[in-house]
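4.2 Preliminary Data

To establish feasibility before requesting continued support, the project team ran the inverse folding procedure on a target of 155 residues. The structure was first converted into the token representation described in Section 3, and no sequence information of any kind was made available to the design step. The complete token record follows.
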């Protein structure tokens, strides 16, 4: 793929032109990424001791479901988030969150290292010291995203 950037003070607005032989999944991902980029939230509302607080997605290690409630893990603290897990996943997809299991989405940019278990699952260790398991079903996508530097959304 060839990328050409033309910076000139005479340009009034930023304009992106894509030239291709045919439509592809890669082009669809690029267009989706560009269209959704402005939608990524800079903060999430969470509840802590009956107070509503603001959480920065880049500081969240993972979000998980427990007893029909959704929680965000930030270091050794847990905060309740008043949304469904699939809503959090959709909201945070451009903040580098990916599905780890049926009940967990994690921030791949917060991963420090991981260990592969004999059953095909990954044990992911975050920079904060937290750890979470990635179901074998999601391991390939997580590894691909980590190899790409966490910048590319993969399904």
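Position-by-position output of the design step:
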């Amino acid at each position: 793929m060839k990328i050409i950037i033309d910076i000139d003070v005479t340009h009034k607005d930023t304009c992106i032109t894509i030239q291709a032989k045919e439509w592809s999944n890669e082009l669809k991902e690029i267009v989706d990424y560009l269209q959704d980029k402005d939608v990524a939230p800079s903060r999430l509302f969470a509840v802590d001791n009956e107070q509503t607080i603001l959480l920065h997605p880049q500081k969240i290690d993972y979000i998980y479901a427990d007893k029909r409630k959704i929680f965000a893990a930030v270091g050794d603290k847990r905060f309740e988030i008043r949304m469904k897990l699939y809503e959090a996943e959709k909201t945070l997809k451009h903040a580098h969150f990916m599905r780890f299991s049926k009940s967990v989405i994690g921030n791949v940019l917060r991963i420090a290292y991981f260990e592969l278990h004999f059953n095909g699952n990954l044990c992911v260790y975050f920079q904060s010291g937290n750890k979470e398991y990635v179901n074998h079903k999601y391991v390939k996508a997580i590894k691909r995203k980590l190899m790409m530097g966490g910048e590319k959304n993969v399904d």
